Amino acid sequence: EKERLSLLRDVIATTRDGRQVFLRANIGLISDVDVAIRHGAQGVGLYRTEFLYMTHSGFPDRDQQYQLYKQVVEKFAGMPVTIRTLDIGGDKSLPYFRQPQENNPFMGWRSIRISLDYPDIFQVQLEAILMAATAGPLRLLFPMISNLNEIRSCKELIRQAAQQLEQEGIPYQEHIKIGAMIEIPAAIHLAPHLAKEVDFFALGTNDLIQYLLAADRSNPRVQNHYDPLHPAVLQSIDRLVSVARSEGTELCLCGEMATDPACLLALIGLGIRDFSLSAPYIPQLKNIINQLDSSAAEAIMRQALELGDSSDIRHLLDSHLEY
Ligand code: PEP
Ligand code: MG
Question: Where found, per UniProt (predicted)?
């Protein structure tokens, strides 16, 4: 098994008709880094920094964050590392930060909304990220973006972080790629405008599906409503891909849905060429992608996008997955 892994590690995922597909890792803990490298990840598409915050007894200071981010960037030796700013709330909380009881936490005060309400705490993270960006190709990602004001405020805070570091005479890199998570349905509609503000999109299907279909991702009772192949999900992704193409905005999908072979076929057919996922899935995805034909997948999806029922879509996709 170990041998098979190392054989596959240096193989680049390429469809039969020669389209290269990037496979990157979602990471949370520093221990995920070696796992990602061992499985041949082409960098990090999503570094969930909330785990760093969750493992401290208070907000980690700038240097603690810098040391960790720098270590991740260095270990990936020139491959891009996408660091997402703190994404708490919903189902994740910090023991040292009091969040109010809410009736609908997933639709409440979470993620970028908290960060922008506490700019002092947020700026510490941005400073640490700008410092770590001196160590290699680091990309900065903002979660739960639902309007343009948020992304503009984030960019203003980056400028302030840079100014602070400048004043302290600390080395930093201000010119880094910045991106928005596309995980709220409104962001799909807003994508042409967001594209003018950011360098890349990170499509978060875990949240996008739950918000599109009003089905809590963590509630097993509504699991059958949480349906990645629902026509509305596929149409949303289709729309985002076409905006990304026409605006020249990079797009990486970082939700779990890519780990389902039928969904993977659908996503390749919709034109996604960049995935980030839990690294142990990478060899499996490579095997599937290497057997796919991207133009055949595109033809299947033109058909699938006409269908109104997700079980018909799954049936269609499955019928093309039998080798
Ligand atoms: C997502 O929402 O799809 C995502 C990748 O982020 P998270 O799972 O951390 O919410
Ligand atoms: Mg999310």
Answer: Cytoplasm
Handedness of CA 120, 95, 88, 136 (dihedral sign): positive
Residues with CB under 5 A from ligand 2 (ion): 183, 204, 207
Please tell me the pTM assigned to this model.
0.97
**ipTM (interface pTM):** 0.99
d(CA 206, ligand 1 centre) in Å: 5
Check pocket membership of 43 for ligand 1, CB cut-off 6 A: no
Mutate to test the pocket of ligand 1, among 24, 46, 85, 252 (most ligand atoms within 8 A of CB): 46
pLDDT of the chain along its 323 residues, tens only?
667 766 788 889 999 999 999 999 999 999 999 999 999 999 999 999 999 999 999 999 999 999 999 999 999 999 999 999 999 998 889 999 998 899 999 999 999 999 999 999 999 999 999 999 999 999 999 999 999 999 999 999 999 999 999 999 999 999 999 999 999 999 999 999 999 999 999 999 999 999 999 999 999 999 999 999 999 999 999 999 999 999 999 999 999 999 999 999 999 999 999 999 999 999 999 999 999 999 999 999 999 999 999 999 999 999 999 75
Helix (H, G, I), strand (E, B) or coil at 63: helix
Cα–Cα distance, 257 to 320 (Å, whole number): 18
